[in-house]
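Backbone-to-sequence.
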């Protein structure tokens, strides 16, 4: 592998989820302190299914906003009226947040743990495109949306999925952040299809380093993300060897990013799972260094 071709002109962003306990909060802020010197374009904070983390998301976003690091707050359509969403967005605007990741969102799981069917709130938004349009009417937010290189699992077809993306961009979104994937061709073919459809927007690949392979497979299935056989072979036997697993995971993700870089990709969005080690190592291999170190040099 040759990482010398990555010349440090890479932009990154990091996704966090709001902590559920004091120990988890301590881990999150340690992660933030480790990654923020890499000068991310922004960091984003997720919003639980059905708005279940609404208050914790807002507190986390507000604290990051106060640090001076650009922050994007996730906001979904699930379980909220248009007025409720407008009130949340107004609170974010008042806190200095100017960037929203607007998603339809997933409803809370059913009692047996399966995914519930999405049903729009009677006074709410039916989809992410409507949410984007509503937010843009309220304030001139910068808005990111989601996209699915392997097609949204609820989409009627790949063509219908592209039309949904077109509607979100047309409503005012400036970029689409992808669901995670593991083969560079998956994203590159999707980028080609988006361009061929005449959809003009920044496409940002979502990168998920492997922290636990069994958990990864559970996360991938409902998203419609294919897990290649070679990954299963690569991580086989590493369940009880966390240090070796981290080395392999960092190398695999960095190589994925390097191949995308060679095809013109310059912004990578990392799903951190509130852990810094893998994201920091991958960014280091891609040529990113803490700003303080760059200034000192």
């Amino acid at each position: 592998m040759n990482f010398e071709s990555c010349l440090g002109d890479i932009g990154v962003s990091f996704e966090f989820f709001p902590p559920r306990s004091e120990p988890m909060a301590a881990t999150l802020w340690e992660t933030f302190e480790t990654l923020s010197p890499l000068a991310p374009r922004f960091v984003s904070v997720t919003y639980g299914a059905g708005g279940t983390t609404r208050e914790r998301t807002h507190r986390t976003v507000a604290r990051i906003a106060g640090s001076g690091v650009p922050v994007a707050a996730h906001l979904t359509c699930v379980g909220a009226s248009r007025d409720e969403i407008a009130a949340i967005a107004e609170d974010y605007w008042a806190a200095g947040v100017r960037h929203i990741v607007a998603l339809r969102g997933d409803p809370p799981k059913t009692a047996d743990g399966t995914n519930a069917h999405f049903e729009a709130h009677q006074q709410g938004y039916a989809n992410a495109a409507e949410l984007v349009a509503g937010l843009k009417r309220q304030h001139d937010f910068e808005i990111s949306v989601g996209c699915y290189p392997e097609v949204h699992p609820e989409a009627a077809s790949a063509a219908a999925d592209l039309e949904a993306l077109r509607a979100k961009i047309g409503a005012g979104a400036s970029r689409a952040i992808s669901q995670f994937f593991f083969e560079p061709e998956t994203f590159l073919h999707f980028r080609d299809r988006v361009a061929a459809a005449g959809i003009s927007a920044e496409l940002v690949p979502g990168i998920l380093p492997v922290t636990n392979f069994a958990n990864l497979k559970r996360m991938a299935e409902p998203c419609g993300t294919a897990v290649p056989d070679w990954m299963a072979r690569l991580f086989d036997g590493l369940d009880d060897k966390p240090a070796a697993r981290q080395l392999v995971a960092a190398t695999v993700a960095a190589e994925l990013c390097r191949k995308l870089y060679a095809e013109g990709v310059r912004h990578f969005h990392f799903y951190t799972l509130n852990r810094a080690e893998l994201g920091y190592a991958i960014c280091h291999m891609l040529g990113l260094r803490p700003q303080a170190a760059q200034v000192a040099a």
